[in-house]
Design goal:
Elements: H1 5-11, E1 16-21, H2 29-36, E2 40-44, H3 52-65, E3 69-72, H4 78-86, E4 91-94, H5 100-110, H6 135-145, E5 147-152, H7 155-159, H8 161-165, E6 172-175, H9 177-184, H10 192-210, E7 213-218, H11 221-229, E8 234-239, H12 240-255
Parallel strand pairs: 1-2, 1-8, 2-3, 3-4, 4-5, 5-6, 6-7, 7-8
């Protein structure tokens, strides 16, 4: 059974940069992302339409390449968590978390006994079809590899940030800045950036207080460097869609088309 490279590197204090996958459906793209120097990719199932079969293919190739694949499910419930973990995904990015009860249910669904009540299965991509290890040891090893990030995307979630972050089994925290801006009533307003940066500082402080990792989505090199210097260990640099769009637009502008 394979270790979770993303989690292993975080425990060593290594800064990592990834990107969203919203459009690409070919798993062989992972070889390109790895060759580029990225440390991980995050597949979005909440706001884009990859099938479960596509995610399964990404998970298998990601494990073969030892290149971490993270997934944001449409909803962080037991059904999606169980299914994605059994496909071989170690890293889950859970949206719209507002209460400690939600976070506790995520932990229960993602870990085997005694940390949780994850449904049992046999040989599968989740254990690389290797069940030779004694069950007790295998379940503990699996539990140790899981990496759960929860997203704060509302004022209610932020009110509960301290209690949620303290929960054992929640490994990292972040915020969904656009949904949060909408919920706070500042979306598109002049004060949006200042308000969101205050909330980002709140997330970083909670992560440091409880010894958890902090993740952040950024859209520029300047933002990436700023939040890295503030202690953020996981940076998600925009998406493959934005990289392709901006890249081709810049080239065509230079050509003069």
């Amino acid at each position: 059974m394979l270790e979770n490279r993303l989690k292993k590197r975080l425990l060593k204090g290594e800064f990592q940069v990834g990107t969203w996958i919203n459009l690409i459906r070919n798993p062989s793209s992972l070889t390109l992302f790895k060759e580029s120097g990225l440390d991980f990719v995050r597949i979005d199932m909440e706001h884009s339409g990859p099938s479960v079969e596509t995610v399964a293919a990404f998970a298998s190739l990601g494990r073969a390449l030892d290149f971490p694949v993270m997934v944001r499910p449409p909803e962080a419930n037991r059904e999606w968590i169980t299914r994605l973990l059994d496909l071989g995904i170690y890293n889950l990015h859970c949206p719209q978390i507002e209460t400690p009860d939600q976070a506790i249910e995520i932990v229960k669904a993602s870990r085997y006994f005694p940390q949780g009540l994850r449904g049992m299965g046999g040989a599968s991509p989740a254990n690389d079809f290797d069940i030779s290890m004694p069950m007790k040891d295998r379940l503990k090893f699996s539990n140790d590899q899981i990496f759960i990030t929860v997203m704060f995307e509302s004022a209610q979630g932020l009110r509960n940030i301290d209690e949620i972050t303290a929960i054992d089994g929640i490994d990292a925290i972040t915020l969904g800045y656009q949904d949060l801006a909408q919920d706070l009533g500042v979306l598109g307003k002049p004060e949006q950036d200042d308000v969101l940066n205050q909330k980002r500082d709140l997330v970083i402080a909670a992560a440091k207080k409880h010894g958890k990792a902090c993740a952040m989505m950024v859209n520029s090199v300047e933002q990436a460097n700023h939040w890295r210097d503030q202690g953020v260990m996981l940076i998600n640099y925009t998406s493959e869609v934005d990289i392709l769009l901006s890249g081709y637009r810049d080239i065509l502008a230079q050509i003069g088309k």
